[in-house]
Amino acid sequence: MRILLIxxxxxxxxxxxxxxxxxxxxxxxxxxxxxxxxAATGEEVDAIILDRMLPGLDxxxxxKMLRAAGKATPVLMLSSLGDVDQRVEGLREGADDYLVxxxxxxxxxxxxxxxxxxxxxxxxxxxxxxxADLEIDLLKRQVKRAGLSIELQPREFRLLEYLMRHxxxxxxxxxxxxxxxxxxxxxxxxxxxxxxxxxxxxxxxxHDQPLxxxxxxxGYLLGQRD
Amino acid sequence: xxxxxxxxxxxxxxxxxxAFLVVFLLLGLAGYLxxxxxxxxxxxxxxxxxxxxxxxxxxxxxxxxxxxxxxxRDVPDNSDAFYRLDAxxxxxxxxxxxxxxxxxGTQPGWHNISISNASGTHPALVKVEHxxxxxxxxxxxxxxxxxxxxAAVARGLGWGLLLLLAVAVGLALVMSRAVAKALAGPxxxxxxxxxxxxxxxxxxxxxxxxxxxxxxxxxGMFARIQELVGGIxxxxxxxxxxxxxxxxxLKTRLEQARASTGDGxxxxxLDAALAETDSLLNTFQALLRLTRLEADTxxxxxxxxxxxxxxxxxxxxxxxLAESRQQRLHVTLAPALIRGDRxxxxxxxxxxxxxAIKYSPDGGDIRVQLxxxxxxxxxxxxxxxxxxxxxxxxxxxxxxxxxETHRGSPGNGLGLSLVRAIALRHHASLRLDDAHPGLxxxxxxxxxxxxxxxTEN
Lengths: 226, 457
Hints:
The complex is a heterodimer. By secondary structure, chain A is of the alpha/beta class. Helix content of chain A is about 40%, strand content about 20%. Chain A has 2 domains: about 1-120, Response regulator (Rossmann fold), CATH 3.40.50; about 125-220, Orthogonal Bundle (Arc Repressor Mutant, subunit A). Chain A has helices spanning about 10-20, 35-40, 60-70, 85-90, 105-120, 155-165, 175-180, 190-205; strands at about 1-5, 25-30, 45-50, 75-80, 95-100, 130, 135, 140-145, 150, 170, 210-215, 220. Chain A has a 5-stranded parallel β-sheet with strand order 2-1-3-4-5, with helices on both faces. A 4-stranded antiparallel β-sheet of chain A has the order 6-7-8-9, with helices on one face. In chain A, helix 2 runs parallel beside helix 3. The model of chain A has no long low-confidence stretch (mean pLDDT about 85). Chain B has a 5-stranded antiparallel β-sheet. A 5-stranded mixed β-sheet of chain B has the order 7-9-10-12-11. Chain B is rod-shaped, with a radius of gyration of 48 Å. Residues about 455 of chain B have low confidence and may be disordered. The chains are: A alpha/beta, B alpha+beta.
């Protein structure tokens, strides 16, 4: 994937650039808002990572201008100002996702890949999702592993569905809260962990290969770890 | 008392009116007394004069001469002057139909008496003279003037009073209305300002009078408030940027170091350092959020939401956690429409339920109740933990306050501060109570539906 990064802080920019390259993406890094806008409107990229506070031009203004120019490239916005209003504003102006600094790199990667996935296919039409021997039937609301039926409560089902749609990707607690519970708040304790443990009990307990993993410092991953 | 009458302006105007009334009455009284004494003087002089004349007759021609002189006088029925002579066993009264008090004449000197004739009873002034031979003469003057004066003054005062009252009340109403009108603008602006419209300003009519100066002073104050509140938001944003950058870099560097350190002691140390950094960042973010919330005086979203739905979601989210500690979550719901921010309200619920779970012992009970009380929506969350002593119930809402008994437990001391800020933002009241055992937190919201007044017996 070709990614355009518009971020003025050198340390953070290097950090992101290096991480993305290691993950196999091509990165073009701009340090200035105006250069970034130029690059965004001129060239074809798969995704843009845009910092909100930039010298020269406000990230939000760049976003507005980009959208006004008809560019539908997915944009992940970064910001130091973590207030909910800011986030809502960013999303309303056309950002596809919003991440607050500092973040764990895995979260950036997870959200970025989530963005690009959204672009490439229309997964909503799928009625069946599967990974390894775990199957989920969205129409019948049934879950099976190795042919054995698993009873899930409605919330657990939604949780598993989200994890499967992001199979082999890291999913953070914030992402889960937003997508599965539809709220944006800061939990004081790891209330999500308990839900994940319960789900893990149900899908991994009687089987050899664990599929639901906890990624230290980041979140969770549903997939076959090698 | 109607609100109108309660108005201090009206009271002031009426006080003025009353004061004028009193002065008017006093002046009237003073005038009356002065005039009265003058007429009294006049009467007395006439009586004295007359008496002198008659005395002369007596000294010249004796009692019989006096008698003759009197009889010759023409004293009509409506005469001002009247006489009585008691001499040698006979009595002569002029005018003839006059009735004088029976005891009159026994005491010499001046007397104020009442006489009656065909036209009624009247006051009169008399002088009684005793002569050497025992005969007595009464010379009197009917106090027509006094009566007329009294009547005239009474009439004058009466009409004057009515007029004064009418003018006073009329002026009072006009004045109070004018002042109320002049104050209406500033009052409305102040209310709007307090509700969060920081751009409100009062219209100045350019007259430079006291009310105008008030308007200008208020505008100055509003501008300063707007500046300060704006300043808070800007300064917290500035702090955010200033402090978050080094914190972000700290985390970034630690992450980089961790990525290139396999497993072992160094890795563990870095993991620990990263955990501490995350904790630091969480507290920092919560603090920023809190400050911003407290400074936010904008209007609430117009959209209504059902608090019951949020409570359902929150309890469902935390149920797993409660179960893992063998705690039971009891929920009572009722449809409860309020105006507010969905995410903020969920945060409030999450913090309260989270606290309840944290401080209740394993196997304890947590109760979440939502109900309607008239035009208020009441939410209560109670636990079976150690509760909070009454002395601490105010300060637990302050930043970073952790009670001695809870030190060491997870949390940054901002949970309840955030709850309070969100409650205030939503015009809700917040209080702590004893749950016997444990703590009960009660949040009281204004309902979004105009009140259906349910009267309870």
